[in-house]
Amino acid sequence: MIGITVLGATGSIGVSTLDVLSRHPNRYRVVALTANSRVDRLVEQCVAFRPRYAAMVDETAAEQLATRLRTLAPEVEVLAGQKGLEFVAALDEVDFVMAAIVGAAGLRPSLAAARAGKRILLANKEALVMSGALFMEEVRRNGAELLPIDSEHNAIFQCMPHDFARGLDEVGINRILLTASGGPFRNLPLSELGQVTPEQAVAHPNWSMGRKISIDSATMMNKGLEVIEACWLFGTRTDRIQVVLHPQSIIHSMVSYIDGSVVAQLGNPDMRTPIAHALAWPERIDSGVDTLDIFQVAHLDFEPPDLQRFPCLRLAGEAMDAGGTCPAVLNAANEVAVAAFLEGRVPFTAIPRSIEYTLGELPRREAADLPTIFEEDAAARRVANEWIRISYPGVL
Ligand code: NAD
Ligand code: MG
Questions:
Q1: pLDDT for 396 beyond 70
Q2: Which residues pair with 177 in a beta bridge?
Q3: Domain boundary among 148, 168, 201
Q4: Which domain holds residue 12?
Q5: Is position 217 annotated in a ligand binding site?
Q6: Could you give the ipTM of this predicted complex?
Q7: What predicted TM-score, i.e. pTM, was given to this entire model?
Q8: What pLDDT digit, counting tens, does each position of 358-393 carry?
């Protein structure tokens, strides 16, 4: 039996992961589940999966969880606080760690899994954006395995030869074609972008996801973060990655070879496919996803992205090219701006403006170690919050 920790079990990816695991009770055993503060859902999951540990960051929530489980599932040990996440990511009895916490909060537990030499199923792209060089080095040094859950990166992984780590040139790859749906505002007149509401922005045409990544998809910062993620995962540079708008979300990405071949991975837009792939790799298991009906799809469209409509895509590319702590600053400023937009404190179009301002205020530093990265993350949050406070006074 393969032991699994699911970090971020109560989120969109966490729930899809448990759905796949429930189809293979003789192959995988859930050792630990974690969540931030959603007690109800974690109680249900603990009752259904009977993990050895359940960890909650919020201490009050952890107390409530412990009280509820005392009668419902007394064998589950409840842990509280940030340290609990790192503990369950590194347990001896755990083989695989699903890293599905959203945002910078996922970095420390994901790194703990890397240091413990686990197979990491990485959904938490922000961890890699913040600390790419360091993260990849920890994976290498500790013999961990890193398998991408992000549907595009999982697709690219499936389209690559097994020895791609030798270098993309060495294996005859000239480009990665990273597909993007373009989100809900692909065709909205530019003059109306300033008035869109959080509800309109989270309504993604093809995917059902958490709120933060849904806003990132609407600004296309999600694709920007994914360009950075792809650079680290596949050892390449931004100029080798072409973002392709593909509104149907059926092709999940493509790899282009020097002999003229382009290899693509297709499937219904359902995260259980990449999750099942990464869980079973190099084997295949049932994910619960319907087989793609190619006749029903019928049309596949492609167009280049519009950087004027989606300035976040440009900002992410520039931050990656600048390197060092710039991607961590970009990520932190984006988290602040997205939260402010979701709370109705700033308009949609303020998201790229606050990020650009923050990047301009904080010069590049060498991302030498974790303390430096977290210092810059904190500095970027201060600058972005201050910009919002001054630019949108009166709105709380
Ligand atoms: P979500 O908001 O639905 O769930 C987030 C999870 O993280 C929850 O379990 C929550 O309890 C936990 N969490 C939140 N804040 C935390 C904190 N401060 N400390 C500890 N835990 C915390 O998010 P999601 O859509 O499942 O996305 C998770 C990650 O996967 C993100 O990095 C996202 O970019 C990535 N991803 C998601 C999808 C998708 O389809 N949802 C696709 C590709 C990549
Ligand atoms: Mg993706």
A1: no
A2: 242, 254
A3: 148
A4: 2-148
A5: yes
A6: 0.99
A7: 0.98
A8: 999 999 999 999 999 999 999 999 999 999 999 999
Shared domain for 266 and 376, answered yes or no, is no
Note the ligand closest to the C-alpha atom of 156.
Answer: 2
Whether the CB of 121 sits within 6 Å of ligand 1: no
Say if ligand 1 is within 6 A of residue 134 CB.
Answer: no
Q: Where does a domain end: 148, 179, 212?
A: 148
Evaluate: CB of 356 within 6 angstroms of ligand 1: no
Alpha carbons 290 and 230: distance in angstroms, whole number: 27
- Token digits for 245? 């708008």
Q: Is residue 317 part of a domain?
A: no
Residue 351 lies in a domain: yes
Distance 103 CA to ligand 1 centre (A): 7
Q: How many helices (H) and strands (E) does the chain have?
A: 16, 11
Q: Give residue-wise pLDDT tens across range 50-78.
A: 999 999 999 999 999 999 999 999 999 99
The structure tokens listed for 222 are 């999600």
Q: How many domains does the chain have?
A: 3
Cis bond leading into 282, ω under 30°?
A: yes
User: Each residue of 203-223: pLDDT tens digit?
Assistant: 988 888 999 999 999 999 999
199 falls within a domain:
yes
Residues 190 and 225 in one domain: yes
